[in-house]
C-alpha cells in the first residue's frame, strides 16, 4: 500500500512538472537580442519584429522611419488592421477581395500556416505601392497584415530585403490570444 502511494505521488509530481514546462497556449513569444515584442491586448495579438525596426504607432512596424511629415512612414512597413470577420473564413475574404478587383491583374494567392492555423497570402493586388496582404481569421476577428512596398529580392540572389526579413519574423512569431 505504501509503495502504491509513493508511486502515485511520484506520478502526480512528474505530471505537474511537465505541465509547468509547457508554455501556455496564450503565451506571447519572448523578445531576443535580435527582436522586440509588440503586444496589442485590445486586438488580441502579439508578435516579434526585428530589433532595428520601430513600432511607435499602434499596429505599425516601420523600417527606417521618416520623421518629417509626408505620405510614407519610412522605407517599408507592415500595418495590422483588425476588424470583425462576420463569420467568414480567410479564404472567403481573400476570394471576395480578388473577385472585386476584377480581371487583368496578376494576383497570386497561397495558403500558409500561421500560429497553428490557416492564413491566406495575396500578392499582386493593385494599389499605390506593391504590397503583400496576409489575411488571418482568429476568434471571429479578421487580421489583415499589409507589407509595403513589396519588392522581394530576385530569386537566387541569396539576399533578402529588410521587408522580407520583417515578414519572416512576424509570420513566424505572431500569436493570437483568445477574447476575454
What labels would you give this structure?
single chain, 180 residues, alpha+beta, six-stranded antiparallel sheet, three-stranded antiparallel sheet, 3 helices, 9 strands
Q: Determine the fraction of residues in helical runs and give it as a percent range.
A: 10-25%
Helix-strand sequence: HEEEEHEEEEHE
Cα(first) to Cα(last) distance is 46 Å
- Spans of at least 5 consecutive residues whose pLDDT stays below 50 are 5-24
Q: Give the strand tally.
A: 9
Enumerate how many helices there are, as a single number.
3
Please list the strands of the largest sheet in the order they lie side by side: 3-4-8-7-6-5
What is the overall pLDDT average? 84
Q: How is the main sheet built?
A: 6 strands, antiparallel
Shape: globular
Question: Rg from C-alpha positions?
Answer: 21 Å
Share of β-strand residues:
25-35%
Structural class: alpha+beta
Topology:
Blueprint: H1 2-21, E1 35-40, E2 45-50, E3 60-65, E4 74-84, H2 90-101, E5 108-114, E6 117-123, E7 132-138, E8 141-148, H3 162-173, E9 175-176
Antiparallel strand pairs: 1-2, 2-9, 3-4, 4-8, 5-6, 6-7, 7-8
